[in-house]
Amino acid sequence: MASNSITTLNYFLPPSDGSRPYTDIYAPSGKPVHNWIEDPHEVQIEDVRGKEELYKLDNAGFQYGREAPKHTSFLNDDEIEREYYPESIDLMKRVTGATKIVIFDHTVRRRRPGETDGGPEKRQPVPRAHADQTPAASIARVHRHLPPTEVPSLLSKRFQIINLWRPISHAAVDWPLALCDFRSVDFKKDLLPVALIYPDREGETFGAKYNPNHQWKYLKAMTPEEFVLIKCSESVEDGSVARLAPHTAFQDPNTPEGAPPRESIELRALVFYD
């Protein structure tokens, strides 16, 4: 039985002084981690279980599927890269029709109630509406992860960044993932570029600004056998396809007491077409 949830989502507002929004990943103590303003709004999130097939990468910016992974432990990064990356590349090629896929990183998230998100080993679900890459950042990713001789020809054709997200260990009943249908997003007005400052470089993500037209969706109680592909960047910019899907973890008020804390993995991939 599909059920909708009313909950509060955290959106972004730019700094009131007009400065460039930033998030400093490893800000030294005493320096603010970010300068943008958190902007909470109550929204309705629709459970699309039973009609998942209506949502595709090209119309909504995300696409659900079902295929159990062969790798199931997700405890060791080297094992994940050796075992889970190749099977995920195969899966993504079959779903998207892409000819070349390069996974450039992954994040395992395990919610730890009462703990802070303290570095790469303790990543938790992100309770803010965002998209992972701006167009400029996505092109920079290609330059960063591929040989310079290959880049021009790869970027001359269709190119995307897509995340492959799935629960691990148990169904994601606690703090599930909500996705915003791109057809309800005003690309120019709703997305706020936020500099992502690392010790050695800068990236750039989009924070989402509140728009009452946003249509938020989730797949209730996603299991480890289920996955969602999330478009983070798209080189086709003529309005014919979705360019991205803002997303966020959210506290589902329908979560039963005692549900195990959410555990999930996302892979981030450069996706190329001939």
TrEMBL record:
InterPro entries: AsaB-like. Residues 113-124 have a biased composition (Basic and acidic residues). One of its GO terms (molecular function) is oxidoreductase activity. Residues 109-132 are annotated as: Disordered. NCBIfam families: CmcJ_NvfI_EfuI (NF041278). PANTHER family: BLL6449 PROTEIN, OXIDOREDUCTASE AN1597. Belongs to the asaB hydroxylase/desaturase family. This is Methyltransferase. The lineage of its organism: Eukaryota, Fungi, Dikarya, Basidiomycota, Agaricomycotina.
